């Protein structure tokens, strides 16, 4: 396995058919829809098709999803994605999800470090960025701790059930 994608505790790997139930739970959790562009539930069939047809070549699909697997727990604890890859500009967005019971245990920090090393060291991407709701203190701290710099705020950028929310734009440029 690529040493960029693992450490002592975690492994980032491609989605497998066995991940269907985990993805089904996450993709259909309506409380998370405000962080993406999902407006309706995903069927198990659609997710099964996604897993079977997922192109793990970022230069073709313009995205790359990894399952975050805990070696100690021997289970999937989240996902981390590179998306909206722009090969000419050599940049990609990053998104991360850690399942609730595994949050605040350092897994997000480790997974994001692995992804950064992979993006810069293996893919030779010039920069990665994240759009983070300004009220999401945990994510703001996570990305700031790993060297991302806030470069702006998009006012009223996303809509939640209650109101429009501001989004902080964070960037990390390769050393």
What's the layout of helices and strands?
Blueprint: E1 10-13, H1 20-27, H2 44-53, H3 58-61, E2 64-70, E3 75-86, E4 91-98, H4 107-122, E5 127-133, H5 137-145, E6 149-159, E7 164-173
Parallel strand pairs: 4-5
Antiparallel strand pairs: 1-2, 2-3, 3-4, 5-7, 6-7
Helix pairs in contact: 1-2
Characterise the protein shown here.
The structure is a single chain. The protein is an alpha+beta fold and 175 residues long. It has a single domain, classed as Gcn5-related N-acetyltransferase (GNAT) (Aminopeptidase). Helix content is 27%, strand content 34%. It is built from five helices and seven strands. The protein has a seven-stranded mixed beta sheet. The model has no long low-confidence stretch (mean pLDDT 87).
Descriptive key words:
175 residues; alpha+beta; Aminopeptidase; 7-stranded mixed beta sheet; 5 helices; 27% helix; globular
């Amino acid at each position: 396995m690529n040493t960029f994608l693992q450490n002592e505790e975690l492994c980032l790997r491609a989605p497998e058919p066995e991940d269907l139930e985990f993805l089904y739970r996450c993709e259909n959790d309506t409380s998370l829809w405000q962080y993406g562009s999902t407006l309706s539930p995903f069927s198990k069939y659609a997710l099964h098709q996604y897993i079977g047809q997922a192109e793990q070549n970022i230069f073709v699909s313009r995205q790359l999803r990894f399952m975050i697997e805990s070696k100690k727990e021997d289970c999937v604890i989240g996902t981390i994605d590179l998306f909206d890859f722009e090969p000419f500009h050599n940049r990609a967005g990053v998104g991360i999800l850690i399942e609730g019971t595994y949050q605040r245990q350092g897994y997000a920090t480790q997974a994001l470090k692995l992804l950064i090393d992979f993006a810069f060291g293996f893919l030779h991407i010039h920069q990665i960025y994240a759009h983070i709701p300004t009220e999401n203190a945990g994510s703001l701290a996570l990305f700031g701790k790993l060297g991302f710099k806030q470069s702006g705020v998009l006012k009223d950028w996303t809509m939640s059930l209650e109101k429009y929310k501001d989004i902080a734009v964070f960037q990390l440029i390769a050393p």
